[in-house]
UniProtKB/TrEMBL annotation:
Enzyme Commission designation: 2.7.8.7
Superkingdom, taxonomy of origin: Bacteria
Transmembrane segments annotated in the record for this chain: none
Name of the protein in question: Holo-[acyl-carrier protein] synthase
Main enzyme class: transferase
Organism name: Kutzneria kofuensis
GO MF annotations in UniProt: holo-[acyl-carrier-protein] synthase activity; magnesium ion binding
Keyword line: Transferase
Length: 125
């Protein structure tokens, strides 16, 4: 399953300025800081927000899941998506931002094997 989400960087910037505590409610400390420890820019945060939204919409659309999703940076600089309670899913994520728009594409790959409890949200029964 694949989902792509777009976020208007300026809109997120206005929301973060209007509500200073919003950043800590939407993003973990690790998400708010880059690998070098410096604060991330709004475009980078917007791409992470797009990834979190995409993951939640792939699962069940429950906005209560958003704060627990986390987009981190791997050792090679690649984005890593962690979504608690989804051990049967391997997450793949791509982030980008340009010209005031942030985009994230998230692919949820079912993990095969005897311990997999993954079930597509679109399946019935």
């Amino acid at each position: 399953m694949l989902r792509t989400e777009l976020v208007d960087v300026a809109r997120l910037s206005r929301a973060l300025t209007r509500t200073p505590r919003l950043a800590s409610r939407l993003f973990t400390e690790a998400e708010r800081r880059g690998p070098d420890g410096r604060p991330r820019g709004t475009a980078s945060l917007a791409a992470r927000w797009a990834a979190k939204r995409a993951a939640v919409l792939l699962l069940d659309g429950d906005p209560a899941r958003l704060p627990s999703c986390e987009v981190l940076t791997g050792e090679g600089g690649q984005p890593l998506l962690r979504v608690p309670g989804t051990s049967g899913i391997r997450w793949h994520v791509s982030l980008s931002h340009q010209s005031g728009t942030a985009v994230a594409s998230v692919w949820a790959e079912p993990v095969t094997g005897p311990s997999t409890s993954y079930r597509s949200p679109s399946s019935t029964g």
